[in-house]
Every structure is written in structure tokens, then in C-alpha cells.
Write a structure and sequence with these properties.
InterPro entries: ETF_a/b_N, ETF_a/FixB, ETF_alpha_N, ETF_asu_C, ETF_asu_C_CS. GO terms for molecular function: electron transfer activity; flavin adenine dinucleotide binding. The chain is α/β, with parallel strands linked by helices and 330 residues long. Helices cover 30% and strands 24% of the residues. It has a 9-stranded mixed β-sheet with strand order 7-6-5-8-4-1-2-3-9, with helices on both faces. Strands 11-10-12-13-14 form a 5-stranded parallel β-sheet.
């Protein structure tokens, strides 16, 4: 006979064995995008078996990379021209077929443009509520996410039998791609073509600077720079620091820089080791996208600017004098 304590432990162990998580990898065919490693870390916190789905046109290198991660039981690979562009319309039926065959209890993807396009569609097809942008895992049914632009933390318990979850990558440490040797298998085959849309082409902006969401250092500018031409001050500073360049929504709306540089609630979420905010007042929408940065440095001529409330180091100065001086001394 089991004692109450040992019976509870036995049941908990059995439940963990029944749990299984599917991570939908984000990659560019040539290799994994770094955020997938963060999602793996979240999946391991849930417990149970972890499998990874890699879908693309020629995604062998990405599948090989993820198979080396510790704790991954298998990698499911789907290669076809149908998956060109990684569109939600073609990936959704593949994920549903994979879920049907393996009966995963959790489906995870990054809370990026990719994940936000795919998983809500998957959740709707499964008739479950999507759990979005989580920053913590309490247990297999309980998750933590931010609400009200990051001003409040919500802990929620999911009742659905299948949990469909997008994960904020910056909230979890990246899982190293070593120490494992997962089996690489074919994903369920099927007709995943769609008449809903047709992929034509894409044009990617090429830059020698680090990608914004994975950069260790970021220099970001706001409306205080007054024009797009003045962002050259930030580019020069960023070159010295090997940093990416970002912007506030105010700077993007003013037309100073393209919207792919926007950081904030409606832009990209970042958490670099160093974040330098130049001419940014610190509106709540911007803080929601960068306040998890390890070290925040603010340069603003207004001593009452809200950005100083979250900054580790603040400089009240004219940015047009301070930034060139800082650049010259690096």
C-alpha cells in the first residue's frame, strides 16, 4: 500500500511521464535562430519528453543543430517547397498532423512574428485558448506572463488538455546545443499546400550589425534625435560597441528610421547586457520592450524623464554633445 505522500509522488511522476512538448523551431534553413534555444529552456521547465519540429525547404543544417541539444528526445523534419516562407497557412496543418500522431500535451513557439502568426491559428483549430508571451513556468499547467504593458504580472492556470504557448525568449536562458544526440525522423507526411495564399518573395535588409533581438549590446534612439540623419551619431557609437541599433515608437512614427528597429510593446522585446537609451523619454510602451536589459544607460537632457527611473546609469546632458564625446573615448 502507498502512503499518502508516496502515492502523491507516484502520481506526479506518472503525470510527468505522460507530458510531452513539441517545440516549433524558428530557423532560416541554414541554421537555427538563437531564440529557439530559449524556447527549449522553457520546454524543459515544463517537464516530460521534448520533441522539436523543423519545417522548411532545405532545413537539414537546422535539424542537425537542434539534435545536439541536451534533453531533446527526437527531431521531426519536414522538407518541402510548400514551406517556403514559413507561412502560417502551410505550417498549421503540419503542426496539427504532428500533434494528432504524437499526442503532445504542450506546443511551444517563440513570441516572435513567426510564432505569433502560427500558434493562434493552431490553437483555434484545436479549439483551445492560446497562452501568449509567457515569461515563466511554474509547472506543466501554470504559467507567468505580463499584462498592462508589463506593469503587472499574471500567473494563470491552463485547463485545456493541450496547451498552445508562445514564449518570450528573453525571459529564458538559451539552452546550449551540446550534450545530446536526439533521433532525427521524418514528420508526418501529407498535403500541406494551401489555396489561401501564395508565397512570392521576400527582401531582407542586410546589415553587418548584430540582429536586434539577439544582440548583447543595443544603442537606441528616440524623438530627441530630431531627424533620421542624426541617427548617424548612434550608428557610430554602435560600431564602437559592436551593438545593434534600435528606436522608440516615437522615432519610427516620425519617419526617422524603419519600423523593424522599433523596440517596445508593439515592437521587439529585447534584453541585452547593455542598453543605451539616447533621447528616449521612457514611455511605458517602450519600457515594456527593454526593461529586462541587464544594464540600462540613459542619456537625456530632461532630468524628469521617466527613463531615469529604470536606468542603472543616467546622464543628464545634451545628446548632441554627449554621444560624440562618448564615441571618441571608446
Amino acid at each position: 500500500m502507498f502512503s499518502p505522500c508516496s502515492r502523491h509522488l507516484f502520481l506526479s511522476t506518472q503525470l510527468r511521464r505522460l507530458q510531452s512538448t513539441l517545440v516549433v523551431a524558428e530557423h532560416n534553413n541554414e541554421g537555427l535562430l538563437p531564440v529557439t534555444q530559449n524556447i527549449l529552456s522553457a520546454a524543459k521547465k515544463i517537464g516530460g519528453d521534448v520533441s522539436v519540429l523543423v519545417a522548411g525547404t532545405k532545413c537539414g543544417p537546422a535539424a542537425e543543430q537542434i539534435s545536439k541539444a541536451s534533453g531533446v528526445s527526437k527531431v521531426l523534419v519536414a522538407e518541402s517547397d510548400v514551406f517556403k516562407g514559413f507561412t502560417a497557412e502551410t505550417l498549421t496543418p503540419l503542426i496539427l498532423a504532428t500533434q494528432k500522431q504524437f499526442s503532445f500535451t504542450h506546443i511551444l513557439a517563440p513570441a516572435t512574428a513567426f510564432g505569433k502568426a502560427v500558434l493562434p491559428r493552431v490553437a483555434a483549430k484545436l479549439d483551445v485558448s492560446p497562452i501568449t508571451d509567457i515569461i515563466g513556468v511554474k509547472d506543466a499547467n501554470t504559467f507567468v506572463r505580463t499584462i498592462y504593458a508589463g506593469n503587472a504580472i499574471l500567473t494563470l492556470e491552463a485547463k485545456d488538455s493541450i496547451k498552445v504557448i508562445t514564449v518570450r525568449g528573453t525571459a529564458f536562458a538559451p539552452e546550449p546545443l551540446e550534450g545530446g544526440s536526439a533521433a532525427v525522423e521524418k514528420a508526418p507526411e501529407g498535403d500541406y499546400k494551401t489555396d489561401l495564399m501564395e508565397w512570392i518573395s521576400q527582401e531582407l535588409t542586410k546589415s553587418d550589425r548584430p540582429e536586434l533581438t539577439s544582440a548583447k549590446n543595443i544603442v537606441s534612439g528616440g524623438r530627441g534625435l530630431k531627424s533620421g540623419e542624426n541617427f548617424k551619431l548612434l550608428y557610430d557609437l554602435a560600431d564602437k560597441l559592436n551593438a545593434a541599433v534600435g528606436a522608440s515608437r516615437a522615432a519610427v512614427d516620425a519617419g526617422f528610421v524603419p519600423n523593424d528597429l522599433q523596440i517596445g510593446q508593439t515592437g521587439k522585446i529585447v534584453a541585452p547586457d547593455l542598453y543605451i537609451a539616447v533621447g528616449i523619454s521612457g514611455a511605458i510602451q517602450h519600457l515594456a520592450g527593454m526593461k529586462d536589459s541587464k544594464t540600462i544607460v540613459a542619456i537625456n537632457k530632461d532630468p524628469e524623464a521617466p527613463i531615469f527611473q529604470v536606468a542603472d546609469h543616467g546622464l543628464v546632458a545634451d545628446l548632441f554633445k554627449a554621444v560624440p564625446e562618448l564615441t571618441s573615448k571608446l
